Amino acid sequence: MLKLTGTTNITLNINGEKRPVTVRPSETLLGILRGKLGLTGAKPGCLNGDCGACTVMIDGKPMKSCLMLGVEAPGKKIQTVEGLNGTPIQRSFIEHFAFQCGYCTPGFIMNCQSLIDTNPNAPDEIIEEWLKSNICRCTGYEEIEKAIKSVLRDK
Amino acid sequence: MTNIGKSVIRKEAEDKVTGRAKYTADYSSVGMLFGKTVISKHGHARINNIDVSEAEKVPGVRAIVAGERFPLTGEEIRDRPPIAVDKIRYHGEVTAIVVADSPSIAKKAATLIHVDYVPLPVVNSPREAVKKSAPLVHENVALYEKDEGVNPIPESNIANHTKIRKGNIKKGWDQSEVTVENNFSFPPSDHIAMETRSAIAEIKPNGDIHIKTSSQAPFMVKELLSAYFNIEVGKIIVDTPLVGGGYGGKASVQLEILAYLASKAVGGRVVKMMNEREEDLISSPCHMGLDATVKIGCTKEGILKAAELTYLVDSGAYSDKAIHLSRACAVDCTGPYRIDHIWCDSYAVYTNHPYPAPYRGFSHAEVHFVFERAMDILARKLRMDPLELRRKNAILPGDTSPTQVVLNRSTVGDVPQCIEKVKELSRWNEGQIIEVDKRYVRAKGIACVWKNSTIPPESSSGVVITFNEDGTLNLISGVVEIGTGTKTVLAQMVAEYFRMDTNDVYVRMNVDTQATPEHWKTVASRGTLMAGRAALAAAEDAINQIKDIASRVLKVRPDDLEVGNRRIFLREEPNRGLDFKEVVYGYTYPEGNAIGGQIIGRGNYILRNVTHLDPETGKGNPGPEWAVGAQVVEVEFDRRDYTYRILKAISVLDIGKVLNYKGALGQVTGAMCMGLGFGGRESFIFDQQGRVLNPQLRTYRPVQFGEQPEYIVEFVETPHIDAPFGARGAGEQGLLGMPAALGNSLSVAAGVELFHLPLIPESIWAEKEGRE
């Protein structure tokens, strides 16, 4: 039984590592990743689920980490952008100039990676449906579209 | 040229795809405190009382700043208390700051601060603000400290008035056989940088103030904090890491002031402040609204003769950058056309709205919307093709700008060529409107654009180049990497000058005002010109030093030497020379004695021949050059429910020499996307009390993935002679004509003239049906 006042100790499975952490029950996963574990790749953009900059993967599915409490996360596999290195989608984002300021990029990449993993043959409508959950203010989305499609279509 | 024009990948690319790129709020330290603002819930109200007693009792609260009278702030008029006293003038104005051990404690305490307000009558638009009966936003505007040449009108809401008087307006109207006159308007909106503003402040025991901030203007943070609080300027050290989007919004200095006051309240301890999205939208500076009256006249043949323009810039509650913004409205008050007789009156007008920061394009997209819409209305009255009307009047070398600058081929791009190309690319000749079926039509709209910068004449930029022992070099510039890739472009320029690989140029990304030469502000699409010229000057300085050492070693004249591939060699005998690594850390003779030392190249640049504007006529040279362009938007419009899809957005821009092709393309399409959002959808929705009803991204929606049109972009490359490699500004130009071209296409599609942004189906329907 989880204690719901004060603080509580939980262990999170992040990027394959077990990370014990003391949290308040109301703390979001985003707040814990950034404030307690130094994983600042997930970005706060709205804390409201509207912008997608804080997207991570939970058991392989994209999740806005501002909408999930830390205490919901034990027992789940959490993957953050820090856990990705040299993947095709990261390379593709670079090659296609799919970012400028880079602030939305980790969220977009996690969402794209999850799409690649779970739906490698995604048609255009599905790609659009998935990526609508993230906002990029610098690009006109064309480069992001090319980046994800080149990974999905060139496999 | 081997480096220039190439799509060189930005230097910080790998950091950005791995989450390792650090922005201001990513930095934290043990013991850091957190500041949280309390913001007003009203548009205009007297503050009766602020009760902090409950908030103070929350364990972990270290200080509460409220009700204290600090020096007034503001760029050209000091009209803004950093934290409200006596009254609040806009919804979102900061009324208190809580400093606490954690963000959650600060937030909890902030909710326990009770402010007792007495609501006051609200000024809800610039049009209302200039009425005689309007309530005053500032009762004593004449008493404020202000810059020379800024003249608020006492007992009014007018903060400043800029005049353009070119030619003889009476003569212009006498020559005009066809005229149109219309009102246009749009409300304030926002930049929506994905990174909300954040700032971290610390005051050291010796009084040094360290500020880390997500800013486009770290050097202005230093200058303004010094001026506002009477602190020696060298004691303020500002550090700016990567910035998560600026678009002008982070060129204003606001949150830094609050972080400084918060740190001061806790004895100088480190305090971090970060806006939540709602605060970033309404509390920090926004994007200006505008109310405009445009009257233009031409001959029967469509030759423009006169323009009479009144611009009321919604300056919100505080004038900060609004005076400069309203001045920029006057400088390029028309589209890029030859017009001999122009009168423009541009006013910065106080309202009870959030106050504006610069916004990508600095008043140009705003002015272009109203002017280019008027051009289409004039074309319709003339029964002339709107593209043809623009072609006939396109500004040319030898013509004069509204501020009476005589243009030449270097200072203005090639407007006719842009129009010609956009005509082809948009298939203009197939017709401006095409009936798809009973329900749908496709329609095109065109707009021409131009932009100069209006930055102060004394703005300068500096670059330092240092060498590493292996002959590679480090480039240090005060340009902030806000996403534009300018620092990578600077590396390309320097590499080109040294004839070496761009990979051998390391770029310092962070700006530290104590260690980095000043770059005035990362704004106005002037990084490539100003920092570029400084970088080339630094490169030349370094090369001269290398030549000096090498000439002595090789016993030749310095001017017989050349550099390339990290070597210095004799022009005539390339095999005879020295590797950079033998020279750049000093040359050591075989006997062991050495000469020279680490090569440090330095360069700076200051804009040439830029002048203040004459207060009566506006005559003067506002900036170095005009980048120009022609843009078309094509929509598919549903005549049944007034919804539309943007099919294509086309830009032909004369940005001079393209320095990094894919980088430039991204700047342009990104700006186009932003412009379509501004024109089509984005605005603050105010209620009768001046409160913003949509201060979050769920109700204020920027363009999303999948909504983007097909982008078609072509460049014309008329060189700007003064600029490195002939480049012109490119960061803003893609945005400038989008709202206008969208408005023009939808006016054709719906068969009704549209005068107001944003162009949402409901407002098109209302215009068409004649309803309010």
UniProtKB/TrEMBL annotation, chain B:
Residues 18-121 form the Aldehyde oxidase/xanthine dehydrogenase a/b hammerhead domain. Keywords: Molybdenum, Oxidoreductase. It holds the Pfam family Ald_Xan_dh_C. The keyword Oxidoreductase applies. InterPro entries: Ald_Oxase/Xan_DH_a/b (IPR000674), Ald_Oxase/Xan_DH_a/b_sf (IPR036856), Ald_Oxase/xanthine_DH-like (IPR016208), AldOxase/xan_DH_MoCoBD1 (IPR008274), AldOxase/xan_DH_MoCoBD2 (IPR046867), AldOxase/xan_DH_Mopterin-bd_sf (IPR037165). It comes from the Bacteria. This is Xanthine dehydrogenase family protein molybdopterin-binding subunit. It comes from Evansella alkalicola.
